[in-house]
Amino acid sequence: MPKKPTPDDLRNLLAPRTEPCISLFLPLPRHGAELAMAPVRFRNLVRQAEALLAERYDAKRIRELIAPLAGLAEAVDVFTPGPEGLAAFRADGVLETYRVWPSPPERAVVADSFHVKPLLRSLQDRNRYHVLAIGTRRVALYDGSERGLVPRALPGLPAPLEPTATGGARNGGGRGARGGPGKAPAEGDGGRREETLRRFRAADAALREALPGATPILLAGPGNVLPAFREVCTHPAVHPEGVDGAVDDVAVDELHERVLPAARRALEARNARLVEEFLKAQDRGLGSDVLTTVAEAAVAGRVRRLVVAGGKTLFGRVDRETGEVTLHAGQSGPQDDDVLDDLAETVLARGGEVFVLDAAKMPHEVAAVAIYRW
Length: 374
Hints:
By secondary structure, the chain is of the alpha+beta class. It has helices at 7-14, 32-36, 38-54, 59-72, 117-123, 191-210, 226-232, 252-283, 291-299, 339-349, and strands spanning 21-27, 85-91, 94-100, 107-111, 129-134, 139-145, 148-152, 217-221, 243-244, 287-288, 303-310, 315-318, 325-327, 337-338, 353-358, 368-372. The strands form four sheets. Strands 7-6-5-8-9 form a five-stranded mixed beta sheet, covered by helices on one side. It has a four-stranded antiparallel beta sheet with strand order 3-2-1-4, sandwiched between helices. A four-stranded mixed beta sheet has the order 10-16-11-15, sandwiched between helices. β6 (139-145) and β7 (148-152) form a beta hairpin. α3 runs antiparallel to α4 (59-72) and α6 (191-210) crosses α7 (226-232). The longest helix is centred in the last third of the chain and has 32 residues, at 252-283. The radius of gyration is 25 Å and the shape is globular.
């Protein structure tokens, strides 16, 4: 059964290996006749890969590589309903299948390395966010996307408060506490206020330990509780816009519906900052939107952050020693790869970051831009 990719999976796929490397991608509909046709479409992708292999490899070698992929078309647990897409990777000693989101375009790629850009899009935090739900009785963390929220265990988060005999929350400002139902302790509440701030400091420390990246964190909770958390919050990714309302007894689907508009705005703001950061770096001579210059800097290890256009493919080759780029109108053989994919692989291997933006939101509408270390 295909699994959700992890950063370790990406590192494994990027490891040097004997060519050829086969990458197949298939969007999976939610239901209906299109879903029933998914195995047929996958077989077509396998045949496309076979045709590309035939340009360079003998029949025996091709059969060894293709047979496991052809067998996937008969597996009932591979083509379950979307909206995710299917990604399959095959090379000597490797057969991996993943469910990826956003759903990738349907295509087959045969090259000297795996085509991993769809996995990058699935793994990176461009379309993801976190929600910290701060109630009067509990603090809970969720991983969020367009599709929904998933609870995430986070060591160090304060434990849920036990209800008191009066129906409130012990030490938590619940109903029956002096602040009133759902209210944060006021300045005059002394010990109760300090206990609340202590719990919020613990939550902030847990966030900083587990979520060191720039993925937006949205706060959800009663409007008179959130300011108390912001008072002690030090995590730079916490979004200024909060989502007001009780969260203790709210279903996950309802919470997702509430936070999604704010999450979209947070992600758009983060993408805009990414573009702004590049433009400032370019003005200082520490960035470029010229593909050949970006490639040369990538192989030299100068690229701190690479941003590539999602949905755009540039077939060709990148010389791993000099950074020289050769582009082709289409995939001209099994040694051709997506140049953007090769650049991403090169930057990641040298400790840089890679982001994928919608093509329409790329600076100057180019295929790739880079921010340099020096």
